[in-house]
Amino acid sequence: MADLAREEADRYFSSRPQRSAHPEDEDDRSTHSSDDQPESANDNYYHSDPGTDDEDVHHHNTNMATMTSTRNTYYIPAQTHYANTGPKGVIADAQSYARAKQSTFRKRMSSFAGNLTSRMTVPSVTEKTEQRKTLSGSPPKSTSSDLSDEDADSQFMETWRASRLQELASLSQAPQRRQSPSRRTWGTFVEVDANGYLDAVEKVPEDTVVVVMIYDPSSSASAEVEDELSMLAYKHNKTRFVRLHHEIAEMQSIEVPALLAYKAGDVFATISGAKAEGLEGVLLRNRVLQ
Fold first, then answer.
1. Is residue 94 included in any domain, yes or no?
2. How far apart are alpha carbons 270 and 255 in whole angstroms?
3. Rg of the chain taking only CA atoms, in angstroms
4. SUPFAM superfamilies under this entry (predicted)?
5. 3-state secondary structure of 177
6. Partners of residue 258 on adjacent β-strands
7. Residue 219 covered by a domain
8. What's the rounded Cα separation, in Å, for the pair 42 and 65?
9. Number of domains into which the chain is organized
10. What is the tens place of the pLDDT at every residue in 89-147?
11. Is residue 99 included in any domain, yes or no?
């Protein structure tokens, strides 16, 4: 009986798988192995990343290079209008200023001549093209058509610098302390060019009277009026006296010598064909002198 029981027990144990560890340890091992499988899958996934990362990095670098090259192609368009920066812009501004000032001088003279002819019914103003003067009052320089732009700009800048230096020198010689309009005195009778004419008429207090004489150096009557005005300028030193060459004025609607009286930039009295005798009385009656 005991032998039968032992044989049955041997058959039972021989048919079951052999365990090398405690059942609970085997359960823990199976749990760990199941946890390790996703990691191994993940490991396989990450092992395939280096190639993908290299492609992403290469694609990113390619985009950055494209953006950089695109930015490098940007440029600031060159300006072709006036008031530009740099040497060319300075030259353009100076030339524009010179043209504007010359246009202002011509408009002032033409406007006065037009008003005068409408009252005196004399022939209208005609410009003397052969004797046209520049802003400095000298005949225009002949320029050849083959001059380059750089040569023309250089020539203009030399003239412009000389004009500016002369203007700054005159300003430096003026009194540093600015006098009130009521105390400003003149006392001289000076010759001016086109620029000086505009400055004399515009750059004075509004209550200052400016007498502009249109003179002809070849006329004896004009010389007599000049002598008389020199004495009147010294005597009435609150009135400014200047003289302008008739070729610069280019006015045929008046008889030279002529006197134009300005106040606040406008003409309020004119004397065409002025005479030295009794000139002070005429100016007093027209309220040019006070």
1. no
2. 11
3. 50
4. Thioredoxin-like
5. coil
6. 214, 272
7. yes
8. 34
9. 1
10. 656 666 666 666 666 666 666 665 555 544 544 444 444 444 444 444 444 444 444 55
11. no
